[in-house]
Every structure is written in C-alpha cells, then in structure tokens.
Specification:
- This protein has helices at 27-33, 59-72, 85-97, 130-142, 144-153, 164-174, 179-190, 220-227, 243-246, 248-262; strands at 2-6, 12-16, 38-43, 78-83, 102-108, 205-210, 231-236.
- The protein is α/β, with parallel strands linked by helices and 265 residues long.
- The chain has a single domain (2-262), classed as Rossmann fold.
- Helix 3 links the parallel strand 4 and strand 5 (102-108).
- Helix 1 (27-33) packs across helix 10 (248-262), helix 4 crosses helix 5 and helix 5 runs antiparallel to helix 6 (164-174).
- The chain is globular.
C-alpha cells in the first residue's frame, strides 16, 4: 500500500480514500490542516500509486495493508479518517487489530450495509438491490471508465454544478484504477454487513454525512449515531458524498475540533 507522510508537530491523522479514489482526494484537507498535524495518506491497492493487487486479494487484505503502514511507520494515537469504502476498511482494521494504535475514528459518508432488504432503508443510492449491484460489477469489468466517471459525478450534491477543477481532481487519478482492485473491493463490501457488528467499535467516532448525498441519500448517519456507543454526527447541509471538497473549510474545522477535543480521552 503506497503511503505519503507529511510530518507535523501534533496529532497523527491517517486518511483512507474510497472505491476508485486516491489520496489526492484529500489534498485540500491535508493542506488545510497545516503543520500542526502529522498527516499520512494512503492509496488502496490498484489505486493511485499503489501496485495492482494479486489475484485473491480482498477487502480484509486492504485492512492488513493498512496495519502494515501503521506498524512500519510506528504510528500511535492515530485518528483514522475513512471515506466511503475507506471507512469500511477502517472498520475491518479496528475489528481485527484493535485500538492499541488508533484512538479515534472519522467515518465519512458510509453505510454499514449496501444492499436493500425489507426493513433496511439505508442501501447505497437509497435502494441498491442485487440486480443493480450485478450491473455495477459488470460495468466495472467491461467499461470501468464509464463506471468511474459516473461515480465521480455522483460524489457531488444532488442538483449541484461543481467546478470542473473539483471533478477533475477526483477523475484524473480515478480513471487509472485497476479493474481487479475495483472488483475485489466492490465484491467485498457488498458481502459485509456491519449492522450488528459496528457497535463493538467503542472508540470516539465522528460521523460525517452530506445532506444532499446521492450515494447515501437517507439518514444513515442518524442510524449510525444510535448504533455506536461513543459517536457524534456532523451533517453538511450543502454537500453530497465529497463534502470535504464541497465545504472544505468547515470539514477541516470539524476534523480539528474532534481530534483536539478527544485528545487524551
């Protein structure tokens, strides 16, 4: 797993991007944090500067890759920031490796279960079913450029007309994502159900969601707030899935307040 560290004078914040996205997604955020934070960004296998994964690589292996980065850099008292599928990677890390090195979690725009079923309203896109998931899988293999372009477009608030520079920031690196990595991570997240497991994550958690999200258009943040034992929820009223790009100043302030406010907790 490729990583970049920008040493700083204060707390360690480690960013994990989502499906088809790279560490460049967080460029504005890491710059906004400034020298008072020790920042690490990673690229999942097959994304950005990380090598394509071998056959058989899984979402669980992505969590193991993250553990290797944390161990190699000898990081402690880490704040993990996971965006979308990157949040699920952090859930897997914490379930498997615990909280010896990680003190805080920031879960950005993710649902604990992506598929629609009776009594569950928080599926991806508000109603992703098995047929829709299969269609997405087929498109990832047959026409990944089209899939990734649509994914980037859906990252921004419903009804918004984002600046071309913002979409290009995501799209330029996104289109380089390997098919194998897309399929491995997508198939993995579809089969993971965190609804009954996520309550075991007891560390302080910040939930961040966009009120105009097209990826997760329901009030899944409120559901997570009720399921986690030590969580707080911040809604971004003008944002969609990429709220740290849509309301960048506020995201940095919220992140700083959470990290600084829970230090030593």
């Amino acid at each position: 797993m490729h990583h970049v560290r920008r040493p700083g004078a204060g707390p360690i914040v480690l960013f994990v991007p989502g499906l088809g996205m790279t560490s460049q997604s967080f460029a504005h955020t890491t710059a906004g944090l400034g020298p008072g934070y020790d920042v690490v960004t990673v690229d999942l296998r097959g994304h950005g500067s990380s090598p394509t994964p071998p056959p058989g690589w899984t979402l669980d292996d992505a969590a193991a890759d993250l553990a290797q980065v944390i161990d190699r850099l000898d990081l402690h008292d880490v704040t993990l920031v996971g965006w979308s599928l990157g949040a699920t990677v952090t859930y897997n890390y914490l379930e498997r490796y615990g909280t010896d090195r990680v003190s805080r979690l920031v879960s950005v725009e993710m649902s604990p279960y992506l598929l629609r079923e009776e009594g569950w309203e928080h599926a991806a896109f508000g109603g992703l079913d098995a047929f829709g998931a299969l269609h997405a899988t087929q498109q990832q293999w047959a026409d990944p450029d089209r899939y990734l372009t649509a994914l980037v477009e859906n990252c921004f608030a419903a009804g918004a007309d984002p600046e071309p520079a913002l979409t290009q920031l995501l799209l330029a690196d996104s289109l380089k994502t390997s098919r194998l990595a897309l399929l491995a991570l997508w198939s993995g997240v579809l089969t993971q159900d965190w609804r009954e497991r996520i309550g075991a994550l007891t560390l302080p958690t910040l939930l961040v969601h966009g009120a105009k999200s097209r990826i997760f258009p329901t009030e899944v943040g409120k559901w997570l707030l009720g399921a986690l034992p030590d969580a707080r929820l911040e809604m971004f009223s003008e944002s969609g899935h990429a709220l740290f790009l849509e309301e960048p100043g506020r995201f940095v302030r919220v992140l700083r307040d959470f990290v600084d406010g829970t230090a030593g907790a």
